[in-house]
Write a structure and sequence with these properties.
mainly alpha; 44% helix; 84 residues
Amino acid sequence: MQVISPLAWSGAGGHGSTLLDGTAVGGTQLVQGAAAALSDLYQHFGVVEASQLTLDGQVNLASWLPASRDRVRTWAQRVGVGMT
C-alpha cells in the first residue's frame, strides 16, 4: 500500500479540464474527469497513478477498501459506470 505523507510534500498543484455537462450526470464522464484529476495530483506525490478509477471511466473495485466496495459497486451500477 502506498502511503502519501504530508511531511514528504507540503503542497501539490495540477491542471486539467473536463466538460461540466458530462460530469453533472454522474456517470462515465464524471469518473473520467475524476481519474484525470486524481492521476495528476497523485503524480505530484510520486505515485504513478490513482488505481481506484481508470482514465477510460471505469471503477477498479479491487483498489477500494473492502468496507467501501459495496457502496462503490452500488453507485456504479446505478449510474451505468463500468467496473474492472
